[in-house]
Amino acid sequence: MSDLPVFPEGFVFGAATASYQIEGAANEDGRGPSIWDVYSHTPGRTDGGDTGDVACDHYHRYPEDVALLRDLGVESYRFSIAWPRIQPTGQGPANQKGLDFYSRLVDELLEAGIEPAATLYHWDLPQALEDKGGWRVRETAERFAEYTAIVAGHLADRVPRWITLNEPWCSAFLGYSVGRHAPGAQEGTPALAAAHHLLVGHGLAVKELRAAGVREVGITLNPDFNVPATDSDADRGAALRADTQHNLVWTDPILAGRYPASDEDTWGELITRQDFRLDGDLDLIAQPLDFLGVNYYRPTLVADAPHREPDASLRTASDNRYVERSWPDVRRNSMNWPVVPETFTQLLTGLKERYGDALPPIHITENGTAEYDEVSADGAVHDADRVTYLQEHLTALRTAMDAGVDVRGYYVWSLLDNFEWALGYAKRFGIVRVDYDTQERTPKDSYHWYRKLIEAHKG
Ligand code: IFM
Asked: Which of ligand 1's atoms lies nearest the C-alpha of 166?
């Protein structure tokens, strides 16, 4: 382990998952349908027609999964709470059985000496709220605040670290303009309204969490590292538009209390004719945070391009005059994502440069890779590519810390192989293999590697 990065005392090593990706038990104990139940049950939406109905059956097997976490030695476990387990229709009184499940999980973690880190929204919006407009309408942000108050009222005494939203870019843009995530819409201004209402929901949830007296509040973003394909002004402009859609639309309001100056160039009429940004919203959105959660996997090479849809009235919010080019000469994982660890350092130092002292401490709330895992004759999964990926990305992270970025923790994505959204179960991100026929868990080589890394830091 001598070539491994050494992290400062107090640095938190963790592992992450999300409710719909692992829990299963989709119709148990009063859980209502979420947009992902409806989307995944719609023919043609997910690869192989996969759904989260059973997933890793974590709802029933959580003691076994917590035992794996304990053996791994992580100090913290990041999980998400399924809103439709707590409020089956997204509003009204709490479903006690839903609260009880998370209460049992939290107690099991605490007993194992693991700090729970809860994400309130990892994409499973109650379908009843989508039927009323989903994140396109402001009311959903208000419902989110009520749900937050219920959950915090039950768990704030035992959960110290809270994340309001996971990767709101995916909710707004993959969900409402690309259409590759639930609810599968391809829209223009309504997708931008969704982005704004997610930010408002975040602000309202921060207030509820503060009122409940929790120790730490943050939000998790998935900033892209967008690199212009050439040095031309046109490609630089394209990279700025990509940055605006993926990053600045979130980080500028949250960290700097402003809307991005480049939003008009990025969205034109779709944003100039909007009326969803209300007075006072920026103050709500820009409340101080204890940490910023950053999920990072791969960089993006971006080139200038014309609009895909010439008719402005038919354009979606992701049609921003740029295209992605293939990153040359690097290994690609099973997602076809380029593996370029040094861009992790550059992303983090770039955030520090842009926001300076306004950048709160960072937790890497996800990082990992889906590889072509195989079970060997000895029954083990020798996932050498994943080990290398983790080692190189942790090293790149340490380099960013040496350059002055305040990073407090790292959560590997993911503890378990799980439901990779529209790509179903074929993509495996886990450091523990899940056999979906038997639900058997097999720690991979990467699990054992991460365990040793954590152990080395315990002295
Ligand atoms: O599986 C997802 C997770 O739900 C959110 N971040 C990215 C992961 C890998 O695609």
From this structure: 5
